[in-house]
Amino acid sequence: MARGWESKNVEDQMRAAEAEKVARAKPPTTAAEREHHARRAGLLLSRTRVVNDLAAATDPRHRALLERTLDHIDQELERMEHPERTSPGEARSIT
């Protein structure tokens, strides 16, 4: 039993060392890049919640609200992926 635990510990140490090596190989990110990734992750999390809520919603008005919210989140994600397609005067609110 002890030997199995020791080999697992060594295996975990090797994985940690490999992960650290990979992390060091990546170029450092700027504050803007970190903010972009955090915003995208937040939008994706919100999208998942809205999709799950939409699957369970039965009231037509609530479903309509969730569908508009989902469209808005998808538009925001599209803008983040392709900022050149966004016109400067485009509205950013949910209607």
Describe this structure in words.
The structure is a single chain. The chain has 95 residues and is mainly α. It contains 3 helices and no strands. The chain has helices spanning 2-25, 31-56, 60-81. The longest helix has 26 residues, at 31-56.
Give me a quick take on this structure.
The chain is mostly helical.
Question: Top keywords for this entry?
Answer:
single chain, 76% helix
The N- and C-terminal alpha carbons lie at a distance of 62 Å
Hey, roughly how much beta strand do the residues contain? under 5%
Q: Largest sheet, if any?
A: none
Mind telling me the C-alpha Rg? 22 Å
- The counted number of beta strands is 0
SS summary, helix count: 3
Helical content (DSSP H or I, runs of 4+): over 70%
Written as H for each helix and E for each strand, in order along the chain, the element string is HHH
Q: What overall form do the CA principal axes indicate?
A: flat
| Uncertain residue ranges | none
Structural class by secondary-structure content: mainly alpha
Mean pLDDT: 83
